[in-house]
Design goal:
The termini are far apart. The longest helix has 50 residues, at 298-347. The chain has helices spanning 9-23, 104-120, 148-160, 178-191, 216-224, 241-245, 253-260, 262-293, 298-347, 350-355, and strands at residues 27-38, 44-49, 54-59, 76-86, 91-101, 138-143, 165-170, 197-202, 229-233, 248-249, 360-365, 368-369, 384-388, 394-397. By secondary structure, it is α/β, with parallel strands linked by helices. It has four domains: 9-102, OB fold (Dihydrolipoamide Acetyltransferase, E2P), CATH 2.40.50.140; 106-260, Rossmann fold, CATH 3.40.50; 273-314; 348-410, no CATH class. The radius of gyration is 55 Å and the shape is elongated. The protein has a five-stranded mixed β-barrel with strand order 1-2-3-5-4.
């Protein structure tokens, strides 16, 4: 400052800079985004405004990595940073360290209300959740076909479970239409039985970016799916209502792929361990046998085998002799019984009776030969008779009938 109290522009601007930058080292401001213009150098320039005022803002390139969404004019933002004075233009602005969407509290309140509603309907009940199949043959991924999440899932499944088929059901994962399209893909997968398990999700993003996965139409589609669903939305700290309706929640898409292939990996590892253990046991047994067999010569082994085999051969011969003797005794007994039966049958034969001089007397009535007579009174005089001795046939006529009883003389 000069002696007469006058200041140059630079002096005044420097005073203002010190006052602003020193007095406002950190501020948090909410306002509507306008005049958004990324520069070719990577910095972001924009204006924050409300109904009565506006302020310039800038976010330098080295801080953009913390930005979780794509700014657009008209968004309500909350920025944290410090005031900075640009002396050449005589302007001041906010140098932003962090930028986030304002109004997330309203979104969270809306999601909590929706969560209570759907939970009351039973969509989040543990009883209705299905088990994830241990060895799925086909895994369908409902996600963006160009997203990093899909690439991670494919890479992990290809490495951990190479036998699994992967079907991609492409869909947008953010925007107003995303929820309805994702729900339609889930319904199509069930209608056409496209998979054994569904992975539904996307990579990380802002709360607004993940909103489609909390829409009612998508949550109801997940709950109604007959195919088990794994919800894999965002990063581990992110959440969506689809997580509660799904049969299993994975913290990331990559974790979903690991969960699906977990049994494959464990089984393959178990097979490898069993293979190594079996191989080691076989080698150990072979070595043990070699050590046991080493002291024995060929002649000694032959003697040992004979000493083991000969007693058994003798027992076999003795058993054979006993068996043959028993069979002969049994056959002789059966032969005697057969002879007795033949004699009895022969004695009961009508032919043997006829050989003793007896004959059969059979009456004839109306030209028909009747059974042999047992009593004389069974016929009348004049009856035609057929008499059959052992050989030949005699035809006679009964002239006189006389009853003769067994105790009387013939």
């Amino acid at each position: 400052m000069s002696k007469n109290g006058k200041m140059t522009v630079s002096e005044l601007t420097e005073l203002i800079r010190r006052s602003l930058e020193g007095g406002f080292p950190s501020v948090t401001v909410e306002g509507e985004l306008s005049n958004y213009r990324p520069s070719s150098t990577g910095h972001l320039y924009f204006t924050l405004k409300d109904a009565d005022a506006s302020i310039n803002a800038i976010m330098f390139r080295n801080r953009i990595h913390s930005l979780a969404f794509e700014p657009k004019d008209g968004m309500l933002l909350r920025v944290r940073g410090s005031l900075s004075v640009y002396a050449q233009r005589g302007t001041y602005s906010i140098v932003c360290e962090e930028i986030e969407r304002a109004g997330e509290g309203d979104i969270l309140a809306m999601l909590e209300e929706r969560k209570r509603k759907l939970s009351a309907e039973g969509l989040f009940d543990e009883e209705r959740k299905k088990a994830i199949p241990s060895f799925p043959e086909i895994v369908a991924v409902v996600s963006s076909p160009t997203g990093a999440a899909l690439k991670d899932i494919i890479n992990i499944l290809s490495r951990r479970a190479p036998g699994v088929k992967i079907r991609v059901l492409p869909t947008p994962v953010q925007g107003a239409e995303a929820a309805a399209i994702i729900a339609r893909r889930i319904e199509q997968a069930n209608r056409w039985e496209l998979a054994d398990v569904l992975i539904v999700g996307r990579g990380g993003g802002s709360l607004e970016d993940l909103l489609p996965f909390s829409e009612e139409v998508l949550v109801r589609a997940v709950a109604a799916s007959d195919i088990p669903v794994i919800s894999a939305v965002g990063h581990e700290i992110d959440w969506a209502l689809s997580d509660f309706a799904a049969d299993l929640r994975a913290p990331t898409p990559s974790a979903a792929a690991e969960l699906v292939s977990e049994d494959w990996e464990d089984t393959l590892e178990g097979i490898r361990l069993t293979e190594n253990e079996l191989y080691s046991n076989i080698i150990n047994r072979i070595e043990k046998i070699k050590l046991m067999a080493k002291p024995f010569s060929t002649e000694d082994l032959e003697y040992r085998f004979r000493s083991i085999l000969q007693p058994r051969l003798l027992r076999f011969d003795d058993a054979k002799d006993v068996l043959m003797a028993n069979m002969k005794d049994k056959a002789g007994e059966l032969r005697k019984r057969l002879d007795l039966a033949a004699r009895g049958l022969e004695a009961a034969s009508p032919l043997s009776i006829l050989e003793k001089g007896f004959s059969l007397v059979m009456p004839v009535k109306n030209g028909k030969i009747l059974p042999p007579l047992r009593r004389a009174e069974d016929i009348k005089p004049g009856t035609k008779l057929i008499i059959r001795p052992l050989e030949g046939k005699i035809t006679a006529i009964a002239e006189e009938i006389e009853a003769v009883y067994p105790e009387s003389n013939i």
